[in-house]
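Notes, Module 5: Reading structure tokens.

Key idea: the token line is not a picture. It is a compressed description, and you learn to read it the same way you learned to read a sequence, by spotting repeated patterns. We will look at two proteins. The first is printed below with its tokens.
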Amino acid sequence: MHSAVFDYFSQPELPSPVLPTAEATALLASEFGIDATLESLGSQQDQNFLVRTTGAAGTTDSDQPLGVLKISNPCFTEAEIDLQGVAAARVASEQPEVRVPTVLASGWWDTSAGRLHARVISFVSGNTLTGSGYLRPAVVARLGALAARVQLALAGLEHPAAHRTLQWDLRHAVRVARTIAETEPDRAVVDEVLAAVDSAATVVEALGDRLPRQLGHFDVTDDNVLRPDGPVTLPDAVIDFGDVADSWAVGELAVTLSSVLHHDGATVWSVLPAVRAFHALRPLSSDEVDALWPLVVLRGAVLVLSGRQQVRLDDDNAYASGALDREYRVFRQAVSVPSAVVTGVLRRALGFPPATGLTWTRRVLDVEPVLLDGGTTSPVHDDGRWTAPDALAAEARRLLDAGAPAVVLPAWTPVLTSAAIGAEEAPASVPTGATLWLAEPTTIARERCDQGGAVLQFDPADRVDDGLVLPAGVPVHVRVVAAEHGDADLPRAVPAVAAPGWRTLLGDPAVALGAPQQAPPAPDDLLARRDRVLAEVQEHYYAEPPRIERGWRDLLVDVDGRVYTDLVNNVASVGHAHPHVAAAAARQHRLLNTNSRFHYAGIVEYAERVAALLPDELDTVFFVNSGSEATDLALRIAMAATGRTDVVAMREAYHGWTYASDAVSTSIADNPNALATRPAWVHTVDAANAYRGVHRGADAIRYAPEAAERIRALAAAGHGIAGFICEPVYGNAGGIALPDGYLREVYDAVHEVGGLTIADEVQVGFGRLGHWFWGFEQQGVVPDVVAVAKSVGGGTPIGIVVTRREIADRYRTQGYFFSSTGGSPVSAAVGAAVLDVIESEGLQQNAVVVGEHLADRLRALGDRHALVGTVHGSGLYLGLEFVRDRTTLEPATEETAAICDRLLTLGIVMQPTGDHQNVLKIKPPLVVTRESADRFVDALDRVLTTGW
């Protein structure tokens, strides 16, 4: 039997209790025996206080509050209040991994505001997601999972008060919205909101009887979940069971999704991780999927109208007034895309069959068109032609001039355009219709443009009595729309993620134009195939990486036509897809490519150019295929030349993956057991890091004498030192400069004990540092052996070792040297072309100019964001180090990884480096522009401001 419970429609106005804090404090002590101080908390319809118990001498335990004092709205009955506690206890029992509060004290108080029910609910530690900061996909997914777990826990639970009628119950949302609208004074708000309500109602009312019902929380939102303390944690607690009721089960998810929409950077599509996570735990039915987004719209409508009403009733309610803007953002986001479109995307994401779309089967164009491929990998876009605003139109005109009667750019296939450059959001790259260029004006009979309930639209077109005249030589947009949407303002292009949804409203005009129809793309399984066929240790950037298939200068492009700014790719030193480099490789491939034992000009001429870039005594060149091979060979040369095997290396460095180069690599980021697993012939000295090493600031001058003494001590102990290897600029830690004079003193000690000095220039050499072409130049020294790679090939695998003739000659003691493709004709041609570009385009000077501007802007971030520790480096090898405390220098490791992930969502490719993985490794192609640098810093500033 049902007990009497609250019915919103009997009392649609609910001013919250306003008990004075002093009175609540006194009653808490007298009624519950709790001496405490109270701190007012926000609530829309109840009154809440944070309870801090009073300790000795009247002090408070500020670190651990006792809980929350909740004074219920007097409209709610005792049975309803009991329902909240029962539901929380059920979740705690059925889903123990979800933290929930418990009731510590409960009872009725006689107050100055009348008889009120009060409860003290236990404190649940952590932080809510309140506010409109960014929610990363993992957090959004966790929101969906929590909603599912709460619903699973409450399934089957019955209670006498479950049938209460709340304004937040989405079964009543249409009636609630229309009821509140009658008192809303702003008719523009009423018209906007009720139009959305009426549209959503047509879907929900048709499905309502088929939607399963159960008891639910119905407020698992950003305000009502808690994440543990820590830099990058996921919510694991649910609070505030005040809206528990019996309603449509899918409403649980709808409410959760709505709370995502007001956060920074959120779009309609930001909710997809939550939907997938919910569905994985508590599968949705087809009807529930169809009802889900209309319910989100209704939730947004009720939030707007109810929030405005609450402020009118209780203008001192700061919680309600402070929520108005974000509630309107929720609503505006919810209606920014038609519900049918969102539903189409949701059905595809969850594996449901798509809704039936429009089909056009009649051909109306009588000529045979040429198809224009505008996709990311189309040859039309080669050599950067896609960066011109009229690139596709120019190609269409070329085809027409070559004799094509018509050219068609198909619908529903992503198109790459210059408009995507610099966009912080995924561009509208998928055309919802075809684009047609005609060689001659063409008349289309009007009756041929209607087929059942579908209409074929052309724009522009001149209307004549018997049909439409399509102009020649200009783009004509062609699409298939439902007759009822014929006059609607429908987008000509949409983001790739939205395309499956829009295909439910718009058809494909391909058949009408005599072109092949574009089938919806199959889900991309390339990453899964990669995981199956490649070794696990051959990793990829990002957990869910974009599929990159084109590059141009300092830009990367994915298959959906999204353009990213590349701030991490020092391999593509002269920019992606440089025409001069590509032409040199293609030309040489047409001539000859063989191993380096053949006699040909390229290897000699390139070796001469490389040697000319170095001090005169470094005159003999070896060619290999990578940085690892180059450092490996450099070590073997030192061992052969000295007849010794022991090597001294700097700690926290990375030199490669071959046996020898890995042996001297001591970065725990690359190998957590690096120091413990070094072979006996490897000895280390402290990393000369003046920022966070054992000697900091002015004390960094101690590194060099200590390293020199270490080298002398090893020699005195009988270790024959073959050589000392380090990066002249500490690349693996983010481009940290060695202390002034460090290499001079250490090199002197090495030579003193008969060893050779090796400069690993693989990352920092070849003009990247700006003021110095080689890193060792900054230290005023000349090494005995130089190893370089990465930048020298511009993406082609080339490694180089350069030394003195007498040292090279001693390598014969180790037998012969042969690298099949090291210095091959193609490698030599590419290497020479890269040098051509560095010289002709002034890229070393660009590293100075853009690098200094970028470093200045990064330093300025430190004035606004405490997470910024310092900026390392020179030119276009920079490191931005993040710390949680500028005194202790506690590394912000988790934050740095999350920041890189957020930057990707804003179109910036960036990765962490350093032993603590807390440094942004900023090493873009040398062609990077000032505009790209500003784009990166602006995006980073946004991330540091709004969250990651």
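Here is the second protein, with the sequence above and the tokens below, as before.
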Amino acid sequence: MSGLLRLALVQLRVAWPRTLAAAAAVLVAVGSFLVLTGTVSTQQLTVTETVNDNYRSTYDILVRPHGAQTAEEQSDGSVRPNFLATEYGGITDNQVKQIAQLPGVQVAAPVAVVGQVMRNILVPVDVSQVLGNRDHAMIRFGVTGAARNGSATTTNQNGYLYLTRQPLTTVDNPRAPTQPDSAELAENRGGTNVTACLASDAGGPATSPATAFQERCWSAVGAGDQPPRVEVSIDIPLTVEAVDPAAEEALTGLSSAMVSGRMLAEADGSALDQSGPAPVTAVTAVMASQLPMDYQATVRVDELSDATADQVLATTDPGKRAQLVLDAAPSRSVAQTTHDAADLYQQTAAETAGAGVDQSLLLEQILQPGDVTYSGSAPLQPKPVPFDADAWRSHSGAFLPAPSSIVDTGYRNLASKVRTDQSTFIAFNVVGSYDPAKVSQSSSYNEVPLETYRAPTVSGADSASKTVLGGKPLRSDLNPTGYLQSPPALLVPMKALPALWKSFSGLDHDAPVSSVRVRVGGIHGLDAVAREKIRLTAERIQGKTGLDVDITIGASLENRTLDLPASAAGTPTLHVTELWTKKGVAVTISDALDIKSLVLFILILVSSALTIALISAASVAARRTQLGTLSAIGWTTSQISRLLSLELIVVGFAAGVLGALVAVPIAMALGIVLTWWQVLLAVPLGVALALLPGIIAAAAVGRIAPADAFRPRPTRHAFRGTVRLRGVASLALLLGARRRGRATVAAIAVGLATACAVAMSMIVQSFNGAVVGSFLGDAVALHVRGPDIAAIVILSLLGLTAVVTVTTLAVMDDKASFATLRAIGWHDKKLALSLTVQNALIGAIGAAVGAVSAIVTIGAVIGAPIGAGLATAVAAIAIATLACSLAALFPAVLLRRLPVSRMLAAE
């Protein structure tokens, strides 16, 4: 064996170009295999960690009334934002108990949405300096609301205040229907009664709060020490929700978000309070310390000229009076103040929490906005609904206090529940305040709808919309019928609901709960067991109650595009994105990654093995004459095989060691994790990759008779007669035709590399297509994109290595022919150009076949669309053709160094 080993080492040293080519091929294959398998493992680890860190949010299952899911939710497996804003019951208390008692349910936290109540914040403006020493004066006032970076403007509470030093008397027969909210007042001027203020409903009720006009009068007679002032209100709708305090604490840890006062307790409900001027039923509540709003109210107070005042008082037509006041140029500005609704709310919340029963917030009306309906799908287009003025009227027909934005474009029908029990008032006893931003949130990737604490997020999707919004997200403009609604401001205990039912008719007594958020116990990861446990729990809930069930574990936020039409208040059409919750994203990622990893591993193994097989076959076949000589002098096939095996083992061992040494720093630079067993696998892998294909090729050569080994190998379909070389192209074609087997091998190598690159690209696109779009999917795709690119590059390098090796060996075998061509006048540049053209043809044909094969195969295996690989295929064919052309540089250099005279003499 020692003699055979020495002979093998001599052969490797003598034929060092072939040895180096084979060793380089094995080294590249081993290194590539290690790096790519490390890539797959690293991707698996990174994605698994990302998914495990973000798969679970506040709750695992969302239970809603039967039929609550919209068509948009059902079509793509999502949960819409603002879904709680339109659910006013549908789940009974008994159904909540049934859910809580089911096996596996750790927490069942119900939410009952009551509706919206209006918080009226009075803004007084002292105008005592206006009258001065004059007998009378007139002041115009009004409120202008602005939203969406000022692009939407609305007005309300327009009117005038008439100031006089003369006494005002009530007119017995007013020019108005009966039972007005304010009387008609007259002033005596020089013996003539002048109507200073018409009755509030003179001319009939207004058709809109924007057109309602107020006439107010103040007389110094009887006013005492009360100075004249203009008083307007800034009205903020507050959503009221009822929760179970214990369940809410177990689900969200609400107590940790309290910033003042205390959390709701199990004993809290409602109680009669008689500390104020009138007895009220006080409902215990906690209040959000801040709410996201986009509404600025500007209060304007202007003095009008005496001439304008005389014109106004000279007519008793209410419409003309209003028009004269609104159109008049002011003589001077008395006051102008702007108030941000979010700031006013925050200030009021701080003052209200812990201050006892707030009798300034007495409930007269509960508003219940309806659901938004859409047309289209990408983008969704919310359907506007007409303004319903009657929903804002009191029993007398006058408009109730409301923000000016209610006249802007609405998308929700509005139901109004007016207080029917006149024996008592309802107020709130706010015992504490909480900061919604401090309510626990598991991850920004997977947050499920938690509208009890957080507002929906809507942002501009194009530059025009972002400009309109001033680069800020779209927020609620306080319009209860608007597209966006603020999260609840007041949380009350479930035990307080009967007090509200008593005072307001039309609330759902029988099934008051809007949704139940369920957390399943014993879940510690997103494995198959946990997924099955959650699925069974959801199935039990649906089977027991018949309610709609959404499995939200593993969900993630995703952007849905919307087109909000131009609004009545002046905002142009907005192209925006809204965060919806996509269900099952984590499961989709895990499944997609498993398929991707399996296919990638197979591609890596096949690419490495076939590349070495092609190179070994070409290398062994090139030694046909040498092996025939050994056979002629008495060597048996077994002895020849042992010699070749020793040579290949030495090459494979050395290349495996070098491959491991090269792969480790490359993996570290790319952030790829290589385990110790992967590194140790490099040596046996190198030996196997070199040995097995070489033995197969040697066996084929060993079957050739010794005499045949010395004859020139016949070429199939050889050209008959003499072929005239007309130039570079004809020589390139002749070279390929003479060595069709070698040309086919080279084309196969190129096709394999191209097929791997195209297949890899389609796999990555398919994987990303399965997960990208959601926040969690985007994060995962970002993690794996770099290693994916590295994998494509290395797979292509494997094929290119095969091309360079095979074509180099082919040139060495045909060196006598090239020497002859040089002897008859072909210069080196012309010969190099012919090699370049030959390789370009091989590359183009092989790449085209490989690309088509990859598109068809991968499309059939993983269901990827054919179009997903077309762009990559075109680019791969172009790159492969160029790379193969450049691969001719090395054999061209060898040609220049061929000794022509010696080669011709040997021939």
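Summary for the second protein:
- The first strand starts at residue 61 and ends at 64.
- The two ends are 36 Å apart (CA to CA).
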